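We treat protein structure as text, and this decision shapes the records that our systems exchange. The tokens are whole numbers drawn from a learned vocabulary of local backbone shapes. One such record is reproduced below, unchanged from the form in which we store it:
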Amino acid sequence: MREIIKMIVVLSVICSVSGYVLATLKEATKGQIEEQVLTYVQGPALLSVLTDNDNDPIADRRKLEVEGRETPVTVFPSIKDGKLVAVAMESFGIGYSGDVGVMVGFDVTEDRLLGIGITTQTETPGIGDAILRPDFTNQFLDHGFEKLAYNSKGGDLDAISGATYSSAGTMEAVQKAVGLYGKIKDQILSAWKS
């Protein structure tokens, strides 16, 4: 019986120390991980959405609180001639093989989509990953909020044949971003007031 108790105590100590080390390591590398994500994941999609600006959207980003949401939303501004002209934010939808991350750009003067860029996806190669193709993403360029749905749902956009979940996940992410934009537009305008 003593041997069992001794093993339980030793295993408990090992698990506690391992958990502490992992938690400390995660916290210590949090900034580096965020910087890597900004540079190699969000950055390319962001640059494809916010194309005409004088500032560095990544350096000028801000986290804005949203009522009813635990985590703040990171908003990337596009400033031209000292004036805020557009913003972008990342949103997620559920695809076939996991979450689909989409960077969505908004024209703040006309309340329109500038476009989208896929940040993360694990969709089936050759089928679901067609959401990365320009012929799919270009449909969202300069698109209004009305009719922002696929043809089968009363909208004017084409889903990808054979990739229903991937298409639906992308649209879900875009529609979530539109909803967030509507909730925080006043905050956005006041955050980058000239």
Summary: Strands lie at 62-64, 73-80, 83-94, 99-107, 112-120. The mean pLDDT is 90. The first strand starts at residue 62 and ends at 64. The chain is about 40% helix and 20% strand.
